[in-house]
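input
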Amino acid sequence: MVLTTACGKTDAPATSAVGAVTSVKTVPVKRATLTSTVTLSGKIEPIESVNVVPKSSGKAAGVYGDVGQRVSAGTRLIQLENNDILAKLDAAKAALAASEANLERAKAQLEKTQIQLDEAKRNLERQKMLFEAGALSQALYDAAQTNYDSIKKDYDMNAASVASAQASVEQNKAAIRQNEVELENSCVVSPISGIIASKNVNVGESLSASTAPFVVINMQTVQINAGVSEGDINQFKPGLDVDVRVPAASPKPFKGKVTKISPSADAKTKTYPVWVSVDNTDDLLKAGMYAEILVTTQRLENALTVPSDAVVERNGQKVVYILDGDKAVERKVSVGKVDEGITQVTEGVAEGEKVITTGLQALRDGMAVREEQAKPQERAAGGSQKAPRQGQSQDAPYITNR
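output
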């Protein structure tokens, strides 16, 4: 009878009653891809979160949004009472029309005076020439000068009237613009496209620029903020692809990308803040969900590997036992990376050789052994199962590629 034990302990060698041959199990040395993975954790956050704040104070005449509603940038959420603004706007428009009419009249009068002034100037110049030639009396010359001075005074007054009328027009235009801004501000809109996350307003309530009646979040893309230790931070670069597991949303991992890395460690956690963005067009991810970020920091292709349980230590040297015909041959090995129950062997074994995985503590170099034949279900399982993790039985199936 053969007795075996499991529960993560190395199996005792099974021996037959005749010849004391040890029965063992083997796994071939295979090539596999080994990875180093850093696991981080954080919470799902919206890529944008905006408090919708009124730009002016007023009473809510209409409320048009509710929690969970999708909105576009510019969607009206609140209408403040604006009757007084509309009245002021109408008054400013009427004042503008009156001031523009007054400006036109002032310009017409100025043009008329300009013509008169030009004629008076030409007459004065003629009279001066005649006076200097002795062909005109002083009285007539003085009369021409007085006429010119009088018309020039009228011209200056009319020019001032035009300037005043123009200023009045500009003032009324400014009043219209101000009232139009106030009218626009009475309509409170969403500044971004997203989903209304919270609502704290009802019709008739008074609002001010210090209140936030709505919060709108953009969840088309989400982000996760996690802390990375100083030993791992240099493995992170903007643009690095990562896997993100969110158990509450899906059993399948999401694809993410590192977007930002802080150059300074957090004073409390002593870790470096890193942000990862994840596409959420399927709307599966919700703000506040727990997420794990899996970052492959190193990848070793085509490595010779054996199950970690096949490597034991003899006199301070790591060894494996190779099945050579009907004997167990002790082989010194050099090992490299260890990844989830798989150990890289850098020296000492060749691809295809069979390493013994059971009864290792009792094996000795040259001991007679007999290979157990795999059961049908074990052969069918083949490499489709995961490699044994630390603490699993050495009889657990061994996978070569992950």
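quick obs: The radius of gyration is 45 Å.
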